[in-house]
Amino acid sequence: MSAIKTYANNTGAKLTFTSVITSETAVFYAFLTNYNESFASNWTEEKVFGRNDPIGTFQGVTRKISLGWDIPAANAEVAQDNMKQISQLTKMLYPSYASSRTTVSSGSGGDATTVSVGSNALTMAKAPLIRLKFANLITQPTGGALLGYITGYTMTPVLDMGMFTMDGNILPKIYTLSVEFAVLHEHDLGANQLKSVPFPFTGTDRKK
Questions:
Q1: Residue (of 93, 178, 87) closest to 128 by Cα position
Q2: What angle do CA 139, 62, 149 make, to 5 degrees?
Q3: Alpha-carbon torsion 161, 65, 183, 189, what sign?
Q4: Terminus-to-terminus CA distance in the chain, angstroms?
Q5: pTM, whole model, 2 decimals?
Q6: pLDDT at 207
Q7: What is the DSSP letter of 78?
């Protein structure tokens, strides 16, 4: 095991994407180049005659995470594994589909028959939700992975750094990747008079 993997396993500093549909994972022993979280507080404002300030009605808070990272390879075997993880992540962007079937009846009375006929048309069965985790920075307050979906994904091989060749395949030595991740909240947030509320991204409970 390389020094990078050993350090990442000991510290938990692995960037992990898990498909909710298939439970397959893409794991990157990554060097973060960009990490940004944004919280948008959404209000509906209504101006009323005779009132200087509008009346604001709160709707909700949306949370988005922007991530950028590099994945280097010291040899061809690591570069090949990097390509495998990238392929896994790319597949997670797509939903699952199910073939539709139609029931066709013919005849009447005792001669009636029912046949299930397949169709070439596909129906989306599940949306491509993903769980994301990175050490204690990107995590649920309880320590689990965040649930959400990817709204943007970019993968760029750094061609200036060269490539490995193995079994007739070309393997870039370094990739630069970035994602935009929209978080779906799975726990209660905000002020609660009965208990302290976990702060969403520290992995620890916030005191009153």
A1: 93
A2: 60
A3: positive
A4: 44
A5: 0.76
A6: 44
A7: H
| 17: three-class secondary structure by DSSP | strand
Hey, what long-range contacts does 182-186 have (CB within 8 A, 24 or more apart)? 182/62, 182/63, 182/64, 182/148, 182/149, 182/150, 182/151, 183/63, 183/64, 183/65, 183/146, 183/147, 183/148, 184/129, 184/147, 184/148, 184/149, 185/63, 186/140, 186/147
Q: What are the CA-CA distances from residue 86 to residues 10, 13, 43, 91, 115 (Å)?
A: 23, 18, 38, 9, 43
Residue 123: per-residue pLDDT: 81
Return d(Cα 94, Cα 163) in angstroms, integer.
Answer: 29
Beta strands, E only, 107-145:
113-126, 130-134
The one-letter code for the residue type at 89 is L
How are the residues of the chain apportioned to helix, strand and coil, as percentages rounded to the nearest 5?
A: 15, 50, 35
Give the SS3 label for residue 9: helix
- Give 10-residue mean pLDDT values along the chain (208 residues): 67 88 92 93 91 91 95 92 96 86 58 57 85 92 91 96 93 96 84 58 48
Q: What are phi and psi of 85, to 5 degrees?
A: -65, -40
